[in-house]
């Protein structure tokens, strides 16, 4: 940490941008799994399981990280303070909490993978349904044409047969 201003910028970036972003996404994910859109469709239980497994972890991680940053006193900057800060940061990074927090990303990758598989399956089902719809429409049109043709032939024979008989009878009478 030879550059305290970079440390301050990183700290501000984490606390002002990442922390609120993580909390917002976590909250939105919780709301989404309780919404009618999610519960009304058939989904795997990966997201609710993720939320249950890591229930308060993001908030705890952010709170402890903030507490750690508050403990770090870098002014005036000295080699001893840098070494202490590095040890504290390393200890926090290797803590069970930090490792479990990193596990969220692995779980999210699993959720994303399953979601893409569900999307692929849904897309394939949709394409199959769309093709089936086209086949049904085409078959219906063809069947309608065949039935209309048969009715036309039957109707024309029904009408022309008596007319032909009447014409033949009229020709015989005339002869």
Report on this structure:
- With 175 residues, the chain is mostly helical.
- The N and C termini lie far apart (125 Å).
- The chain has six helices and no strands.
- The chain has helices spanning 4-34, 36-39, 46-53, 57-71, 79-93, 96-174.
Model regions low in confidence, pLDDT < 50 over at least 5 residues? none
Helix count equals 6
Major sheet size, sense and barrel closure? none
Order of helices and strands: HHHHHH
Instruction: Tell me the total number of β-strands.
Output: 0
What is the overall shape? rod-shaped
Q: What would you call the structural class?
A: mainly alpha
Q: How much of the sequence is in beta strands?
A: under 5%
Q: Please give the share of residues in helix.
A: over 70%
Give the topology:
Elements: H1 4-34, H2 36-39, H3 46-53, H4 57-71, H5 79-93, H6 96-174
Helix pairs in contact: 1-4, 4-6
Q: Brief description of this entry?
A:
The protein has 175 residues and is mainly alpha-helical.
